[in-house]
Description:
The complex is a heterodimer of chains A (360) and B (576). With 360 residues, chain A is mostly beta strands. Chain A contains 1 helix and 18 strands. In chain A, strands 2, 3, 4, 5, 6 and 7 form a 6-stranded mixed beta sheet that branches. A 6-stranded antiparallel beta sheet of chain A has the order 8-11-17-13-14-16, with no helix packed on it. A 5-stranded antiparallel beta sheet of chain A has the order 9-10-18-12-15, with no helix packed on it. Chain B has 576 residues and is mostly beta strands. In chain B, 9% of the residues lie in helices and 56% in strands. Chain B has 5 helices and 25 strands. In chain B, strand 14 and strand 15 form a beta hairpin. The longest helix of chain B is centred in the N-terminal third of the chain and has 23 residues, at 2-24. Chain B is globular. Chains A and B meet through helix 1, strand 1 and strand 14 of A and strand 10, strand 11, strand 12, strand 16 and strand 22 of B.
Amino acid sequence: MKSILKLSIVFGIAGIVITVLSCKRSEVDYLGPAYVSAPEGFAVTNFSATSELVDFTSDTVVFNADFTHSVSWILTVKGQESGAVRRYSGNSKGFSNIVWTGVHDDLFFFRKGESVTATLSFYGSSYTASTNLTIKEAPDYTKCGQFPREGHFENPSLIVPKPGPPPVYSPYFASFNFPNPIPNVEQGVDSMAIDYKGNRVPSVQGKNYYYIKGKGNQSNFVSGIQYFGPRNIVLPQTADDVWVNMYIYGTGDANAQVELEYQESDPGRGLPGYQGETDDAFVAYIPLTHKGWKLFSFRYSDLTPSKNLAFGGNGNKIHEPHRLVSFNVILVKVANPDSPVEVYFDFPIITVGGPFKPCR
Amino acid sequence: MTNKVTLVLALALFSVILCTELKAQNVYFTGLGRALVTNDQLTDETDPASKLKSSGGYTLFDLGVYANPNEVLRGGVILRVRNEFGGFFGDGASLEFRQMQLEGLIAKKVKYEIGDIYLTHTPYTLWNKETMYSKYESNVFALRRDIVNYENFYVGNAWRMQGFNTKAKVNFAKGADSLGIRVYGGRTMETDYIKIPDRYFYGGKLDLAQSKYFRIAGNLAGISDIAGTVKEAEVSYNNLVYTTDFTAAFEKEDKWRFAINGEAGASKFELSRVSDSINKSFEDFFYDIGTKATYKPLGLNFGVSYRNVGFNFNSPMAQTRRVAAPNDITLSAFPTMNDRVSLRRTSLYDFYGQENTMYNQSISTTLMDYYIQYDMVEPYGKATPNRKGITFSADMQEPEKLFNAGIEVNLLSEVVSEGDSITNALRNFTLIRGGFVFNVNQLIGFEKLIAVNAGIRNESSKRGGTNSLNLSSSLIDLGLDVEVIKDLHLLGGAKFFKVNGMEIQTGRDEVNQIVSYGTGTKFNQQQNIIAAGLRYDYDKAGYFSMHYHIVDFKDKDTALQSYDFNQWFFVFGLKF
């Protein structure tokens, strides 16, 4: 019995040693990026920006700095209203000619008219240096793709229907009868909305965004908005090359879902323009289970044909982005019709060759 | 009148028939009820003239309905009805399924569970690490922590998951005692049918017990995306951890037992992403080997072990943190200070007092952010990557229940330098924790409980070299539990926490590689919490308890961050 025990121990330990020795571990001296912390007596001797007022539609800002020692540094440019951030970092005794085109990291865009603070900070030190400037005009990213008119929602009068010239967008109405709103639905343009969880919804681009709120006690369909502005979107015929993009704010509510419906005018099928009974609508279904803003991008060829025969489900079922004429954003409830749901969205843009990225 | 009498009789008859029928079908019920009320006050320097006050609470009842149609099958569901404090005629009330589970035996050999199940494996494969250090805290805090753990589905070191768990044991006549086999699995993430694929977890164990002196097991734990559940997945993720653990022991004169034990293994994970053509794969290993000596007459244990966990060792089910990432936490009691703008800093009170949004219930495939001041040495448990070093431990369970105590000393360091690219200096970590419970009534021969307890945890993280760092913290727990008359306990407790120094937090990408370092965070904080109250036990069926908690949070370096938080707390609990 004792010999079996000894043999088992030897085999067990040998097994573990073999397991460990057979495993790989890459040989490195340090992990992550290299950095050097600021020593005692460290100081910034020069930190400047080439302009205090910048028009990013035609100009850029250049940052320069000199330090007493060679250290690791971070330059953080932050918008005071938008919270947008652009970061640069390096290891050196200073830098010259860091060109900032107004582009942002993360989600939030820099805004027209806002003050911006550029702050130099250093690893392992609370020492900072900063300089301020103002954005006269923000970069124009509408040219990074095909941008539906007024998709930044900065001109509410062109979004909300009113007597006079037709708007570019139209909300859904009860039984399609303007101006009767759908009961228990609130929708429109806002910049300071409070979501159902009590959080203020910040603007992701510009100052405004569009919102739809279903207040509960209604069917699974809540409401929507249709873009029927200029139908001159120029896109290639190859659906694999086209991407539809939109910033959408969610509250983590599994009961809320948005359907982005892209509508084509198929040739030889009924009247010109998109007709729900005869043309294609291709849809992206987005559960709003995320929290905060998120950029959603879908390859056009991945959009699924509408299942609703009366509204886009009866076309030729061929993805033809060059025939795209309008799109809808529709808010629905997944399961519980009595529970309030909401969605906020901004900056719909259609790009070619990949998802939307700030292109300056 | 006749109609009412008829209705009452009909209902009574229906109830009798129903109960008889349920009993015949082996249906039984369990229940947990709780009514809880708090009254809070916040004082701070942001607006000295203002003193925020609030009150809240709820009533809830969890009704468990279980059916045993036969001796090898059981199904159960727990339904929850909850009504917020101030809800009127059901306004604010909610009804939800808290748990659904089926379990049974196949051929009287294989035990299985399906549905909402609690899973744990080894500290390096599947493990839910406890928060902070609460082993020797006062019962006045433990009562609150138990509620938080129940609300967040924490039972020991198990994760509550949806899936299945099967196990079987084969006994042998000679050569070896038994062979245990275990297989589990389930889904950690649901597809959105667009870009996010179904993500499954799975694992298993083959455990050979040669005798009571030797056992060895092979373990497997993995997480994989299922190809084809969406047309074009945003990412494809696969992770596999495989380990061996063993115990070899011998005894001497029925008094001493000596054991060698350990676990060793490796991980491999891969992630590919279409949008930017990323295709990454990482492998690494760990080992944790130790010895333990036990002196049985006094219940005394001594242990020493050495571990080395690679910087790319990736085991999501063991490394996921119980506390949510700081950016995902919203404090429920006074999220902002009296100026209604400044955010209140998270204190030790919030860890034992806040039931919702403080804790995490899902497995994270990336190393989660954490409060470095509260958990600097082992933020991801024993499986924390990039750690090596020695652990000494000693504990004692006095057989007469007079005294129990324990202490553990961890002297660790990094395997590879994080953040010193010039001298490659390593951080050195020290974690010392221990405490005792002393049942004074056993000493003086008093039949009602008089218990004193104390605990301490000291942590430090230090590095020399070019980019020197030094952060240390200490947590002291004191507690008193006196049964003044039968079933009525006087409870007292205190927590004293201090953290001082500077550390740098790391930013990681989706494959857990360090991509950035923060500029460093300085701490100079002190927290004192004192609580006192009563608890009356209704045998084992329920209790009523009321406490007063005084929280003093001081930030000595940052202006306007200090605050005083006081709370009255009342709870009635019921369980059957």
